[in-house]
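Handout, page 2. Input:
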Amino acid sequence: MIQYQAEPGLGVEEFIALLQRTSLGERRPLDDVARMERMLREADILLTARDEGRLVGVSRALTDHAYCTYLSDLAVDEEWQRRGIGRELLRRTHEEAGLHTSLILIAAPAARDYYPHIGMAAHDSCWMIRGAS
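Output:
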């Protein structure tokens, strides 16, 4: 049985290890431990999914709790996918931020087909300035 919880003290090593077991790992600065640590600590919402203590999923979001919530990481261990863990983490993240907020994310290329499946709508005008590496 999967246990879901807010886990603001999640350790950076465990977070990095999970991301390495997902498609997100290739798009995150996993070699920069200090940056990864800051990503964890500055998140407004940090939820985890665990099976018998093993970290199998994480949701990391930034929100104003009034209008919008940016889901910056939704990661589920590839061995644990297709069990509803991502959907439940997304639901709980939105609930924590406030259902009146718009939940926004940029899909990883490998996950583009997943989000419409769980009821999210595509938006055609996302714009960004990439940060320096």
